[in-house]
Amino acid sequence: MLAPLLGLAWVASGGDLAHWSHLARHVLPQAVLDTILLMTGVGAMVLVLGTACAWLVTAWDFPGRGVLAWALLLPLAMPTYIVAFAYLDLLHPIGPIQGAIRWLLGHDSPRAFRLPDLRSLPGAIVLLGLVLYPYVYLTARAMFLSQPAHLLEAARTLGEGRAGAFFRVALPLARPALAVGTGLALLETLNDIGASEFLGVRTLTVAIYTTWVTRSDLAGAAQIACSMLLFVAALLWLERRGRRQQRFGSAQRMRAMRPRRLPGGTGWLALAAGSLPVLLGFVLPALYLVVETGKRLALGAGISRELLSALGSSLALALGVTGVAVSAALVVAWATRSIGSTPNPARWQARVASLGYAMPGTVLAIGLLTPALSLDAGLAQWLGLPGLPLMTAGVVLVTACAIRFLAMPLGNIEAGLTRLPPALEHAARSLGEGPLGTLRRVHLPLLRPALAAGALLVFVDTMKELPATLLLRPPGFETLATWLYAEAARGTYEEGAIAALAIVLAGLAPVILLARQHPAAPTETGTSAHRTENAP
User: Fold this and answer.
1) pTM score above 0.85
2) What is the mean pLDDT of residues 479-494?
3) Is-contact 231 38, C-beta < 8 A?
4) Helix 80-90 crosses helix 480-490 at what angle (to 10 degrees)?
5) Among 100, 126, 459, 475, whose Cα sits 20 to 30 Å from the Cα of 168?
6) Across the chain, how many H-helices and E-strands are there?
């Protein structure tokens, strides 16, 4: 985790002052402005949309509410660059949606009627918001479900209506969860490169990529990346500030909030309103990909050998990253665990190790490149090998992705370890087992669900990863994500739809896992106890 940061500072210091002045005058102002505007718009949209959807399925009962509660997670399976890829074709002036609107209005030419161009900052805000709102929805709904009913009932008895009780009681209590969910969504926005570039928004991430790849200016890209780290630090600070004075309480007989039944047409209207984000954020893009894939297969074109090779490369990369990340997370979680009530002084190391998720892929790639190349050159000289063996074998790419996604299995394993009674370890040690024997014979069998869940999340996120893969892949190495990026850049959407559909199908796996683990709100008054958990 520290090596990329040190490498980034080293590369950035290699640029001269005149170079930095040029970037500060001609590159950074527009990139910083676009990044701030994009993050502000996306943050506001995911906060409103995610909170509204979470409250809708928690506080109200209507037809289809149970299905809608998990369906609202589906946009998580859709990477931002795939949504942009799909909507650019769907909303093209001669595309199906604008064509249908013109037919309804009686126009026969795009000159007579056309929608505003999607390639714009507002278009990017809307598309990213439709994909990233589940981060807020997940954390907010978990918090709403854990709030005891008597707090809202007390507000009602003191004269507040339902809206007042929501804004003055339920919403302030959910502030920590909202801060976490919004922070995660903004980190994903900052990491995005495909959607922003497709939609013509020149963010800091896009500026780093074009400065490095198009202008072959690594020092300039590193200097931009250093300024981007200020955004990351600001997001982490805001997220921590949003969770300040957070406390957790438990009650033996805490009654959960009972949703109120919406009668007749009002209930169906609520279902329609709640289904709109799912329709726009998942159903329409997914249907487009299915139709385009079906068209290509119906023409007998089949799947090209290059696309099959990209699929194999994606699977190999995902398996490698999953093995490295889960193994490293197990080591970190085991070494920094607390036994019983005794705190482990090494806990800070786990926090530092998990910061990779906050680093955008482009920043991580630039920072890791210099130490990796130095190590690669020394290894080649020592073994007498030509070229750069680690870079060519994909070891550097696997390392970058493992650093970025280490937080996922680490969180799952830490949560699993905290649920294991300390008496199990004490009993094993008293029966003669050493630390490694206790890990192998006691903890690992009990940690299998946590290990499997963490491995699944890492595998799927690696399949979808674009920025780091785009910059650190070996020569001739194509994944489904880089293949789709190249197809969209060329404007050839036919075979790109097959690659996008494969990525979306892979992304459905963690969504199904989340839906199975997501708690359901009660429909009747009961005495079931709820615990407030730390947000992911």
Assistant:
1) no
2) 79
3) no
4) 30
5) 126
6) 29, 2
